[in-house]
Write a structure and sequence with these properties.
The chain is an alpha/beta fold. The chain is built from 14 helices and 13 strands. Strand 1 and strand 2 form a beta hairpin. The longest helix is centred in the C-terminal third of the chain and has 23 residues. It starts with a strand and ends in a 10-residue tail after the last helix. About 35% of the residues are buried.
């Protein structure tokens, strides 16, 4: 059972597939394209691929393609010689040159303008660059790991993304699931963030109330793990008790979660029972993980008899052996 992988936290089947793909392709030195929603952890995947590759001791150079103005992109990527343009007072090494023999991580690849897409493709094919204002070609050897939240195939059909570059970087595709499709991972992540930010802020917040947790589970998380991280950080800062409660969560989140539950239909008691069952399962999984499958100590923390804990585990299909080691 996967509880974590590198900097990831999660044991869901969707994430297990991601971990497996990383293990399979990291050592092959092929280019990788990661697709996932904003905040889902695409850079974590890229760094995991790099750490397991033959280039692990070489640079990992990330660039956010959407954060650099178009008129500066060429200089950032390829570098420039002194006097290449107004303000170029000295020679500058570009990001591709800095990543030589390492990994070049292109975040938000879909934001690259077409002109730079063509120059990047030429560099990847010829393994050479020329600095802006320079005459000499410089050899570069980089592995490209790219990431996007956009539909590049649709962009190709619209003439916004080069087909040849797409197939050049998309040798292996890794599809990163959104948080709403990761099931019990939300509880594991929330617990980790509570622990981290409680320590950082010097507060004695030990967990989340059942009511608040059910709201977190009902919410859609359009901002994914990054949004959950920020919500927990805010809640820790505001919490006046030892557990995060509904009052510590943003009103908009609580309202959105309630509207979603109502829109899904079903009677009040039916939805309540579903929420309770979800909470029980996630609570037990987190509890057993902390105690490495030791039912005796887990029952002591939960303040329930061991027999009760065994019964609940059976009801939710949990086996203590899966949490050992």
């Amino acid at each position: 059972m996967h509880i974590g992988f590198d900097d990831f936290i999660g044991s869901s089947p969707a994430m297990a597939r991601v971990y497996e793909t990383i293990e399979q392709v990291a050592g092959l030195d092929v280019d990788v394209l990661i697709h996932g929603e904003t905040g889902s952890g695409k850079e974590l995947v890229a760094r995991a691929v790099h750490r397991r590759s033959r280039r692990a001791e070489r640079p990992f150079v990330p660039v956010d393609c959407g954060a650099i103005p178009d008129n500066l992109l060429e200089s950032e990527f390829f570098g420039h010689e002194r006097g290449a343009f107004t303000g170029a007072d000295s020679r500058r090494v570009g990001l591709l040159e800095a990543a030589d023999r390492g990994t070049f991580f292109l975040d938000e690849l879909g934001e690259l303008p077409l002109l730079l897409q063509a120059k990047l493709l030429r560099t990847l094919q010829e393994r050479k660059i020329r600095r802006v204002g320079g005459r000499d070609e410089i050899d570069v050897d980089v592995r490209v790991v790219a990431a996007t939240a956009r539909n590049l195939e649709e962009m190709m059909r619209e003439g916004l993304f080069r087909e040849d570059l797409y197939y050049r970087v998309n040798v292996v595709n890794i599809e990163l699931p959104p948080l709403r499709e990761r099931g019990d991972d939300l509880g594991l992540l929330a617990e980790r963030f509570v622990l981290r930010y409680s320590r950082e802020m010097g507060k004695q917040v030990a967990g989340i109330t059942p009511e608040a947790y059910l709201v977190l589970r009902a919410y859609d998380w359009p901002g994914n793990v990054r949004e959950l991280q920020n919500v927990i950080r805010r809640a820790i800062a505001l919490a006046k008790e030892s557990l995060i409660g509904l009052n510590d969560l943003p009103d908009s989140l609580v309202t959105s979660a309630g509207e979603k539950r109502s829109a899904e239909g079903g009677g009040f008691f039916e939805l309540r029972d579903q929420c309770v069952a979800t909470f029980e399962h996630d609570y037990l999984a987190s509890l057993l993980k902390r105690h490495r499958g030791n039912v005796k100590t887990a029952a002591a923390e939960a303040r329930v008899p061991r027999g009760t804990l065994y019964r609940l585990m059976k009801n939710h299909g949990l086996d203590s052996a899966d949490f050992r080691g």
